[in-house]
Amino acid sequence: MMFQHKVHGLAGLALIAAVAGVGCGGGTKGGGTGGGTGSTTGTTSTGSTSAGHPSTTAATTSGDTSGAGTTGSSSASTSGGTGPGDCTTYRLQQCKTMKMCAPHLYMQAYEGDDTLCQSEATRLCATLPSSLDATTPGVADAAACQTAIAGSCAAYLAAMDRPPAACQPKPGTKMVDQSCLVSAQCGAGLSCYTGGPPGCTQYCGPVGTVGKPCAIVNANVPQDDLCDPANGLHCVQGAIAASLTDNAYQCRKVGYVALGAPCFAHSDEQCDSGLACSTMAGPTKGTCVALLQEGATCVTGSTDKDPCDGRLGLSCQPTDPAHPAMGSTCQAAYVVPDNATCGMVMDGTVTHNHVCGDYSYCDGTGVCKRKAMQGEGCVANGCYPPYACSVGMCQAPTVQVDPPCTAVPTVPANQLACGPTPGGLPLACASACCMSANPATPNACAATGACGTSAVANAELDCEDSSQCAAGSLCCLKFNPKSATLPPVMGTCTASASCNFEICRTDGAAPCAGGTCVAAAKVMSSDWTVFLPDEVGFCKAPTCVAPNDAVGCAAAKECCSGQCDLGATQHQNLCF
Question: In terms of DSSP bridges, do strands 255-257 and 269-271 run parallel, antiparallel, or are they unpaired?
Answer without folding.
Answer: parallel
